[in-house]
Amino acid sequence: QKKVVLLHLGHYTFLCWSLRVCQTLKVVFSNPNMVNAGEMNGSGNLMDFLDEPFPDVGTYEDFHTIDWLREKSRDTDRHRKITSKSKESIWEFIKSLLDAWSGWVVMLLIGLLAGTLAGVIDLAVDWMTDLKEGVCLSAFWYSHEQCCWTSNETTFDDRDKCPQWQKWSELLVNQSEGASAYILNYFLYILWALCFAFLAVSLVRVFAPYACGSGIPEIKTILSGFIIRGYLGKWTLLIKTVTLVLVVSSGLSLGKEGPLVHVACCCGNFFSSLFSKYSKNEGKRREVLSAAAAAGVSVAFGAPIGGVLFSLEEVSYYFPLKTLWRSFFAALVAAFTLRSINPFGNSRLVLFYVEYHTPWYMAELFPFILLGVFGGLWGTLFIRCNIAWCRRRKTTRLGKYPVLEVIVITAITAIIAYPNPYTRRSTSELISELFNDCGALESSQLCDYINDPNMTRPVDDIPDRPAGPGVYTAMWQLALALVFKIVITIFTFGMKIPSGLFIPSMAVGAMAGRMVGIGVEQLAYHHHDWIIFRNWCRPGADCVTPGLYAMVGAAACLGGVTRMTVSLVVIMFELTGGLEYIVPLMAAAVTSKWVADAFGKEGIYEAHIHLNGYPFLDVKDEFTHRTLATDVMRPRRGEAPLSVLTQDSMTVEDVETLIKETDYNGFPVVVSKDSERLIGFAQRRELILAIKNARQRQDGVVSNSIVYFTEDPPELPPNSPHPLKLRRILNLSPFTVTDHTPMETVVDIFRKLGLRQCLVTRSGRLLGIITKKDVLRHMAQMANQDPESIMFN
Predict the structure, then answer these.
(1) Do 133 and 234 reside in the same domain of the chain?
(2) 521 shares its domain with 562
(3) What pLDDT is recorded for position 155?
(4) Closest CA to 129 of 119, 147, 141, 143
(5) 614-634 as b/e, with b when 16 or more CB fall inside 10 Å?
(6) What is the DSSP secondary-structure string of 531-579?
């Protein structure tokens, strides 16, 4: 369930919203002294702005959480002002139309740029991957496949060989066979891989440190309201696009799909900055980023609908209905743009589009479920091992040498990968071969079956046949490749380079699935009289499709790592065109999630969020402990009293001293320190900006000027300096709960309203404060985890 900023919480007896909330979208109190949160049945303005607001008001510092309620309120005020002005003149009416359509324009631009970048990345990866093995003499910018397409001397039997394409050994020493040619090609393969990886990690380290990793954990955190300045910047976009091509081409066990979500969100952030509607409102900006994430998955997998569901299920925190429509539009434009570029030359959006011609049978559900179990176990193993390795990287000297780590992992990967044809090729090509059904024209080792010379069946209906020597060779090569991929991916994901996890996880599952599929196929062929095969697999029939098992295994392993379900199934059938095989995919995805959840609820992205200490309050987490707000609030027993501001008795110097001596994000405002009756809440950043602005623009404001937050100035003795009114930055309706409110309720309120902090009162008297960090640390403590791992608020 996605967070909705203003949600009716009728099942809590202490909380009762007025109908005016739906109209004004502001939480307000009828009494400015705010007796408690259980009596919020008045209305008023959240902020009392002056006619000339000072610059930077309402902005946030880096590594802080936004105030969703205030952002929503500001957008409502802006929209109300535009609507009222639109009736004044034709020009204002046109401006209101432009404002209404600006969201769709942003979606169009995001889709166009994301689709274009994805197409360029696909073309560049295809060329640079082949560059490790050889070069096209007629046009060096052609990949191996493109080079032989353009050749007039290419035959069907030798369609991968043509005079225009030469391996490095042929070009340098004029030898294509033999030990010396093999060693030279081997050496140059490793050298190219090291060059690509070194260039990538150097660019990331020097120009854009935020361009490393998958990006999805940080995107999830940003969409929940956290500020990470520069993470979606223009430099990050440029460097991540370039280095993504380099690291995928280097042959490392990583994919480009996750980083493409980051690239698309960078596009969304860039275009948001061009429209004040989004650039000045962090809440509205996050609606655009949610749609951009959908466009990223759309171009990564060629799955527009799956992209929308991925954004909804996996990354978005606040996903209103209009964002759903706009996400769909952005994903559509992105997919159309990528289709127009046609990077794979097959009129498809993805490299491994397949079509199967054999239905699946109920008896096959058992091996499909077994693949689901394997996917769940693989997901659990990967998450635990990868997090342990990443934690070691953060806490030891290993983290000080990111370039050396990348070089060592790349060298190990290239040295081990080259001798095995299934690890030498790009992972996307490997998955494509594993997914393919064996037709009469296939030349892969996986299709080396013993054919019946008297067979006169149609091409698309080849019966099950006994496996030939090529299949058995491929089986043990796949087994070695599977072990290698499982181990090397653990150490590769999380290095200081762009690294996606979708494709390596799918490759692990596809290899396991293909081997299981071949096993079931041979079992059905040699033992067709068994009771489980007798009803559906007669001699000479095409019963089992090994490629389908590979597809199901890929879905199971990806689901085990990410814990996706609905969006995963939709992505897989859009990816492969296998609409008929939704039930096997669903069975495998659900089984993998159940098995993985039995060992731990966290997916890989949530685990990395917790590892980095980001303040992410997951809507999937359950809090069932019987603690109260008074157990979590600060100050606790034995701690110093809460730092507060008084409404009309502190000087500018007192406020500046309080700000200097503390690092709190804001301060409650009370009537006096004796009564501690709550008036409102003032943000630290806005206090600093307001005082600085007043000293520059308002005459008579000095260090001993009285600061007041009331409508009318206090009575001052004669010759007193000019007082400073700061009511305009005061939040008159901070959210409050009583000290006996259950923490289960408090956690739910923080989730659904996106609060930064919540004040604790008793009969209107301020007792303490609960911040988002306090909530997360309390949840970690209750789960027997380290509460100090939560580093940001």
Answers:
(1) yes
(2) yes
(3) 57
(4) 143
(5) bbbbbeeeebeeebbbbebbe
(6) HHHHTT--TT-----HHHHHHHHHHHHHHHHH---HHHHHHHHHHH--G
621 assigned to some structural domain: no
The number of folded domains in the chain is: 3
DSSP H or E segment with residue 112: helix 90-131
Rounded to two decimals, what is the model's pTM? 0.86
Chain centroid to CA 686: how far?
31
> pLDDT value at position 337?
94
pLDDT tens by residue, 89-124: 899 999 899 988 999 999 999 999 999 999 999 999
Place of tokens 């693989």: 378
Alpha-carbon span 342 to 363, nearest angstrom: 39
| Position 215 confidence tier, pLDDT thresholds 50, 70, 90 | very high
What is the C-alpha separation between 772 and 793, in angstroms, rounded? Answer: 6
Q: Which residues of 236-270 are buried (b: 16+ CB within 10 A; e: fewer)?
A: bbbbbbbbbbbbbbbbbbbbbbbbbbbbbbbbbbb
Do 558 and 634 belong together in one domain? no
Of 59-63, 187-191, 222-226, the one with minimum mean pLDDT is 59-63
**Residue finishing a domain among 583, 612, 641:** 612
Q: For residue 738, list its beta bridge partners.
A: 761
CA distance 513 to 444: 17
**In-domain check, residue 54:** no
> Which residues, other chains included, contact 398 with Cβ-Cβ below 8 Å and sequence gap of 6+?
392, 405
DSSP label at 759? E
Q: Is the pLDDT reported for residue 527 higher than 90? A: no
Please indicate, yes or no, if residue 310 is contained in any of the structural domains: yes
Q: What is the pLDDT of residue 202?
A: 96
Q: Which helix (H) or strand (E) holds 681?
A: strand 678-683
End-to-end CA distance of the chain: 23
Given pLDDT bands bounded at 50, 70 and 90, which one contains residue 51? Answer: very low
Residue 534 lies in a domain: yes
Distance CA 527, CA 464 (A): 12
pLDDT band at 1 (very low <50, low <70, confident <90, very high): very low
Look at residue 590 in the predicted model and tell me its pLDDT.
Answer: 95
Q: Which two tokens stand for residue 732?
A: 């008159």
Query: Are 768 and 633 spatial neighbours (Cβ–Cβ below 8 Å)?
Result: yes
Distance CA 542, CA 438 (A): 11
Asked if the bond preceding 55 is cis, omega within 30° of 0, the reply is no
Pairing of strands 165-167, 645-646: unpaired
Residue with tokens 């380079």: 497
**Tokens 């296939």 appear where?**
442
Same domain, 634 and 560: no
Query: Of all helices (H) and strands (E), which one includes residue 334?
Result: helix 321-341
The model's pLDDT over 291-302, given as tens digits with 9 standing for 90+, comes to 999 999 999 888
Whether 199 shows a pLDDT value over 70: the answer reads: yes
Helices (H), 600-683: 604-612, 629-632, 652-661
Angle of helix 566-576 relative to helix 582-599, nearest 10 degrees?
Answer: 140
State whether 520 and 564 are in the same domain.
Answer: yes
Beta bridge mates, 104: none
Q: Which stretch of DSSP H or E encloses residue 736?
A: strand 736-738
Round to whole Å and give the CA distance between 250 and 415. 12
- Average per-residue pLDDT for the chain: 85
The arithmetic mean of pLDDT across residues 430-436, rounded, is: 90
Looking at residue 354, what DSSP letter applies?
A: -
What's 234's domain CATH number?
1.10.3080.10
| 12 backbone dihedrals φ, ψ, rounded to 5° | -100, 120
In whole angstroms, give the CA distance from residue 251 to residue 260. Answer: 18
Q: Are 548 and 356 in contact (CB under 8 A)?
A: yes
Residue 437 structural domain: 365-449+463-612
pLDDT score recorded for residue 9: 36
Tell me how far apart the alpha carbons of residues 225 and 62 are, in angstroms, rounded to a whole number.
12
